[in-house]
Amino acid sequence: MAKFLLVLLVFGFIISHVVSIRSLNRDVIEMKEEHEKWMVKHGRVYKDEDEKEHRMEIFKNNLKLIELFNAGDHKFKLGVNQFADLTNEEFKTIYNGFKPSLKKIKEVATESSSFRYENVSVTPVSLDWRMKGAVTAVKDQSQCGCCWAFSAVAAMEGITKLSTGKLISLSEQELVDCDTAGEDEGCNGGFMDNAFEFIIKNKGLTTELNYPYKGTDGKCNTKQSAIHAASITGFEDVPSNNEAALLKAVTNQPASVAIDASGYAFQFYSGGVFTGYCGTDLDHGVTAVGYGITSDGTKYWLVKNSWGSSWGEKGYIRMERDVDAEQGLCGIAMQASYPIA
Ligand SMILES: *[C@@H]1O[C@H](CO)[C@@H](O)[C@H](O)[C@H]1NC(C)=O
Fold it and tell me: Which residue, by CA, sits nearest to atom 13 of ligand 1?
């Protein structure tokens, strides 16, 4: 009897092992297919089989992470987007081009800036500048760390619409190529306030059409840069670490904001009100184009990103507003600014 049991045990062990290896194989095959479908969808090509294998591993890990996250109770969801074959480290390096090294310099400069909206006392419960025709379609910076240019341009497109009545898509590439006097370094990162300074000195910015986006650093086309479609006379910083002040500003116009967009939750954000996880190491420039409150009472900022319309909510993210920290969620209230017509 004991012998029989032992045989049964060994047999059972072998069977279960074979079955688990089988299912493991099936998982690998399914994952490969999943990855290949994803490659087609996003037009991804790898240089060889090794690279493909390597990317498939990362893809697999990201899928697991996204699934695990979505199984939990959160106010937002993650999704398999165009960044699914990148580790979080790679993602940060490629896409987030707001220069953190300038933070210190900036904090000092902020002290003396005037704030024209300080006495604004009435702010609506919700506001969406897209509804007022002051926001152009979502753009895609692709693999160039010039979020700062997209952030500044979106804010400028907003004030241009408000002051002239015309919504004109303006050129980020002009900033990438021509704004090299300050610490701005095109695809290697830059700073929204420096972009505004360049635009003021240049006496304007040309259209997206005149100076189209390439997504790489290039030589300044001075001929196109001299054709001005819109101009600004100055810019101001929103008082730092003050979400109430940011609300006053955004009530009046879309504003450039810097955030910490380095986490995997940000990388794979697909919808809902983003409530974290993030720190306050500012590394990404985006544009606050409104705010609101959900039916469950969660207040949020409506933020335009520059990662195409397949990321987030058609290219936008709603980020929790009026959080406990004075810096705001992901540091959104730390270094906001806006151009003046
Ligand atoms: C806000 O109101 C105060 C007090 O009336 C005034 O001194 C200040 O100049 C006003 N600020 C702006 C930007 O208008």
Answer: 116
Residue by residue, pLDDT tens for the chain (341 residues) are 556 555 555 555 555 555 555 556 668 888 999 999 999 999 999 999 999 999 999 999 999 999 999 999 999 999 999 999 999 999 988 877 676 544 444 544 444 579 999 999 999 999 999 999 999 999 999 999 999 999 999 999 999 999 999 999 999 999 999 998 767 889 988 999 999 999 999 999 999 999 999 999 999 999 999 999 999 999 999 999 999 999 999 999 999 999 999 999 999 999 999 998 899 999 999 999 999 999 999 999 999 999 999 999 999 999 999 999 999 999 999 999 999 99
Q: What angle do CA 237, 238, 240 make, to 5 degrees?
A: 105
Ligand 1 center from residue 160 Cα (angstroms): 25
Q: Which residues are catalytic?
A: 147, 284, 305
115 Cα: distance to centroid of ligand 1 (angstroms): 10
> Does the CB atom of residue 121 touch ligand 1 within 6 A?
no
Contact 242, 113 (CB under 8 A): no
Write down the CATH number for the domain with range 88-340.
3.90.70.10
Domain layout of the chain by residue ranges:
2-76, 88-340
- Which atom of ligand 1 is closest in space to residue 115's alpha carbon? 13
- Which phi and psi angles does 226 have, rounded to 5°? -85, -10
What would the DSSP string read from start to end of 99-156?
Answer: -GGGHHHHHHHHTT---TTTT-----S-EETTTTT--PPP-B--SS--HHHHHHHHHH
